[in-house]
Write a structure and sequence with these properties.
heterodimer, A: alpha+beta, Glutaredoxin, 5-stranded mixed β-sheet, 7 helices, elongated, B: Glutaredoxin, Ubiquitin-like (UB roll), 4 domains, 21 helices, 16 strands
C-alpha cells in the first residue's frame, strides 16, 4: 500500500511550532497510520528542519514507535519483575505458542502483534497485559486465549 | 422519587483491568431496571487491589464497601439493598474502617479513591487549592523555605531535597523557566504516580503551579509514559477543567500570575525516567543522558532553568503549603521526613498502595499489610526500589524504611516499590534479567552501561553453565565495580545493586556454596 506522504507531512507540520514537537508529531503519525513509515521520514525531517538521520534516530530509539505496520491489535505482555514473580514468563511462552509468533512479531492471520512491555503499573495484580489501550490483570493462559479471541473478533 | 444514591466504581486502570467498566455498566442498568435513582461516580482506587473492583455506596452511616464485585454480582447487591447498606457476602463494612486503610497515614493519598478525580468542586471540598491560595499570599522565597523546612526529598528515587532544587532555579537568571514533572514511572512494582494522576490529578496540577510561583516558571510539562493512557486522559481532562476555572492560564486565581501546563506522552524508553534523558526527550530528541553539570536547575529544558521533580514530590507540596512545613516534617524518621506511598507488588496476597510515615519496616508491610505471599509459599527475596534496587534478604526485613538506613546496607528505597518473590525465585535468573534489562534500555552514551550490561549477561550465563565459576564471580564483581563507578547515570550505575545483592545473599542460586545464614 502506498504511503500517503502528504498526510505525514500535514501531521508533522501541525506540530512544527510546538517546542520539542517531534515526539508529539511521531505519536500523531503512528496513531493515524499505525506506524511511522520510513518513506515519510524525509518529509518529517524537512518540516522540522532536521536531517533524515536525526529523525530516523528518534523513531528507532523509542520502543513505542514502529517502522512497519503491525497487526490489527497489539497485545503487550508485561515481563518486568513483579509480573515475573507471578508467572509472566510462562504467560509469554503460552502467548507465543497460541499466536504462533514470537515477541515483536505478528500472528500469521495479521490479527495480533505480540509485544513485551516493561511495567504497565498493574504490579499488584500480576501478570498483566494491555490490548491496545485496554488493561487486563491476573491473566491466566485460559483468560489470555479468551481475551485474544474477543479482541481479534471477526478473524476467529 | 427519592434522592439519588451515590455509588462509586473506580476508574483506576488496575480496577479497569479486572472489569470495573462492566461493573459500572451493570450498576447503571440494574438501577434503571429497578427505577432507582443512582449517581455513579468513577473515583480513583483506594489501592486495595485484591478487592477491586471495589464498589462503594454513600449512606448516612458513611461510605460502605463491597468487593471484589463482578458484573454478575450486581443484581444480588441491589436485591440485598446494598444501596442502603444491606448485608451481602461481599460486604466489607465502612471503607475507612478496613484495617489496611485505617492503619495508613494518608497525606498525599488522602483524596485518592475518595473524590471524583476530575471534579474541581469535589477537589476543593476536600482541601484542594488551599495550598495554592496560601502560596499566593507568600513571597516566592517563603514558599521555597516552606518546602525546605518540610524536609521533602525527591520521591522519584534519588531523594534529593526538593527545596534545594527549587531554590537553585529561583536564583538562576533566565527570562523563561520551566517546571517539569517526571511521570515516566517505569520501575516494576510501582504505580503511585499512575494512581495519583488517575485518582487526584488536580493535586499534581496544584503542586506544579506552586512550584511555578516559587521559582518564577510560567510553563510546566508533565512527561507521562505511553503505557499509561488512562493517566494521560485524566490529566488532560483535569487541565482543561482547571484552565476553564482560572486555576491555570494567564491569571491564576486572579493573582495576575501565569502558569500553563501541557501533558507530553513518552514513547517507551525506561532511561527517560532519568531527568536529563527526559529533558532530551521533551525537546524532541533521542532520550540520551546528558553529562552533569550543568544541572537542570541551571540549564535544563531548552537550556533554561528547570525544576524537575517526580509526581509524588510535587503532589506532596499542596498539603505542605496548606498545613505548614512542620505538619509534614513531623512524620518520618531521621532525615527521611513525611510519608512514603509504598507499593506492595509481585507475589503478595494483599497488594496495593500503603502510605506510611518513613520508619515502617518491610516485615510490617509484607505481613501486617500484605498478608504474606499470594502463592502461600515462603517469601524468599524482596526487591525494593525498582529494577535498579537491591534484593533484600530476610535478615534486613526489620530495617526501618529510611533513605539512610537502606543506603547503609547497599540498598535503596527508590520510588517505594516493593516486589515480593516466593521461594521458587531463582536469584541468578533475576540478576541476569537485571543485566538484560540494562542492555535493552541503556541509552548507549557511556561504555560501562552499554557494553557492561551485555558482558554481564554473558558472565552470568557462563556461571549457570558452571564454567570456571570462581573466575566468573571475580569477573562479575569487577564488571559491577566498573559500572557502579564509571556510568553516567543510575541506569548503569545501579544495575549492580540487584546483581550484587543476589550474588551476595543467594550465592547458592549461582551454583556457589550457600552462606551460613544463622551466622549472618
Amino acid at each position: 500500500m502506498a504511503v500517503d506522504i502528504e498526510k505525514v507531512r500535514l501531521l508533522a507540520a501541525a506540530r512544527r511550532d510546538q517546542p520539542g514537537g517531534l515526539l508529539p508529531a511521531l505519536h500523531d503519525i503512528q496513531d493515524r497510520l499505525g506506524h511511522v513509515p520510513p518513506e515519510g521520514v524525509p518529509a518529517i525531517a524537512e518540516v522540522f528542519n532536521l536531517s533524515r538521520a536525526e529523525v530516523h534516530g528518534v523513531v528507532s530509539y523509542y520502543h513505542h514507535f514502529r517502522s512497519a505496520p503491525g497487526g490489527r491489535r497489539t497485545v503487550r505482555i508485561c515481563r518486568a519483575e513483579a509480573c515475573q514473580a507471578m508467572g509472566a514468563d510462562a504467560l509469554v511462552e503460552h502467548a507465543q505458542r497460541h499466536l504462533g509468533c514470537k515477541l515483536h512479531e505478528t500472528s500469521a492471520d495479521g490479527a495480533v502483534t505480540l509485544e513485551a512491555a516493561y511495567c504497565l503499573g498493574l504490579c499488584a495484580s500480576s501478570p498483566a497485559l494491555m490490548i491496545d489501550e485496554t488493561p487486563h490483570a491476573r491473566v491466566t493462559p485460559q483468560r489470555f486465549d479468551a481475551l485474544v479471541a474477543a479482541a481479534a473478533g471477526e478473524t476467529r | 422519587m427519592s434522592a439519588a444514591v451515590t455509588v462509586y466504581v473506580p476508574r483506576d486502570a488496575a480496577a479497569l483491568a479486572v472489569g470495573a467498566d462492566a461493573v459500572a455498566e451493570a450498576v447503571a442498568a440494574e438501577a434503571a431496571a429497578r427505577g432507582l435513582a443512582v449517581r455513579l461516580v468513577r473515583n480513583g482506587s483506594r489501592g486495595m487491589f485484591w478487592l477491586e473492583p471495589l464498589v462503594e455506596v454513600a449512606t448516612p452511616q458513611g461510605r460502605l464497601a463491597y468487593g471484589p464485585v463482578a458484573p454478575e454480582d450486581v443484581p444480588g447487591l441491589f436485591e440485598a439493598g446494598f444501596q442502603s447498606g444491606g448485608a451481602h457476602p461481599l460486604a466489607l463494612g465502612p471503607t475507612e474502617e478496613i484495617a489496611y486503610l485505617k492503619r495508613q497515614e494518608r497525606l498525599t493519598f488522602a483524596r485518592v479513591g475518595v473524590t471524583d478525580p476530575v471534579s474541581l468542586e469535589d477537589y476543593e471540598a476536600h482541601e484542594g487549592y488551599a495550598g495554592l491560595r496560601r502560596a499566593l499570599e507568600m513571597t516566592p522565597e517563603a514558599i521555597v523555605q516552606a518546602v525546605l523546612d518540610s524536609g521533602l526529598r525527591g520521591r522519584g528515587g534519588a531523594a534529593f531535597p526538593a527545596g534545594i532544587k527549587w531554590k537553585t532555579v529561583a536564583a538562576a537568571p533566565g527570562r523563561q523557566k520551566y517546571v517539569v514533572c517526571n511521570a515516566d514511572e517505569g520501575d516494576s512494582g510501582t504505580f503511585s504516580d499512575r494512581m495519583t494522576m488517575e485518582g487526584d490529578p488536580f493535586m499534581l496540577i496544584e503542586g506544579m503551579t506552586i512550584a511555578g510561583l516559587a521559582t518564577g516558571a510560567t510553563q510546566g510539562y508533565v512527561y507521562v509514559r505511553s503505557e499509561y493512557p488512562h493517566a494521560i486522559a485524566a490529566l488532560r481532562q483535569a487541565i482543561r477543567v482547571a484552565e476553564a476555572a482560572g486555576r491555570l492560564g494567564d491569571d491564576v486565581l486572579g493573582s495576575g500570575r501565569a502558569f500553563s501546563l501541557e501533558v507530553r506522552k513518552a514513547a517507551g524508553s525506561y532511561v527517560c525516567g532519568e531527568e536529563t534523558a527526559l529533558l532530551e526527550s521533551l525537546e524532541g530528541r533521542r532520550g540520551v543522558v546528558r553529562a552533569k553539570p550543568p544541572l537542570p536547575a541551571i540549564a535544563g529544558l531548552f537550556g533554561c532553568p528547570t525544576v524537575i521533580n517526580n509526581v509524588i514530590t510535587l503532589a506532596a507540596v499542596p498539603l505542605i503549603l496548606a498545613r505548614g512545613a512542620a505538619f509534614y516534617r513531623d512524620y518520618g524518621v531521621g532525615r527521611s521526613r513525611g510519608t512514603l506511598p509504598v507499593q506492595l507488588a509481585g507475589n503478595i496476597r494483599h497488594g496495593g498502595l500503603v502510605e506510611k510515615a518513613f520508619g515502617v519496616t518491610l516485615r510490617e508491610l509484607m505481613f501486617d499489610f500484605g498478608g504474606g505471599s499470594a502463592s502461600g509459599r515462603p517469601i524468599k527475596a524482596v526487591q525494593v526500589g525498582g529494577p535498579l534496587g537491591a534484593y533484600v534478604p530476610e535478615s534486613q526485613w526489620d530495617l526501618p524504611l529510611d533513605y539512610e538506613a537502606y543506603a547503609a546496607v547497599g540498598a535503596v528505597l527508590g520510588h517505594g516499590g516493593i516486589v515480593v518473590h516466593d521461594d521458587r525465585a531463582d536469584l541468578s535468573k533475576l540478576a541476569r534479567y537485571a543485566m538484560e534489562f540494562c542492555a535493552l534500555e541503556s541509552c548507549g552514551k557511556c561504555t560501562p552501561c552499554r557494553i557492561g550490561s551485555t558482558r554481564g549477561v554473558e558472565v552470568i550465563d557462563r556461571m549457570a553453565e558452571g564454567r570456571n565459576r570462581p573466575q566468573q564471580v571475580q569477573l562479575l564483581r569487577d564488571l559491577c565495580d566498573t559500572m557502579l563507578h564509571g556510568s553516567l547515570c543510575a541506569m548503569g550505575g545501579m544495575t549492580p545493586y540487584p546483581v550484587l545483592s543476589a550474588l551476595n545473599h543467594w550465592p547458592e542460586d549461582f551454583g556457589l556454596a550457600a552462606p551460613d545464614r544463622a551466622a549472618a
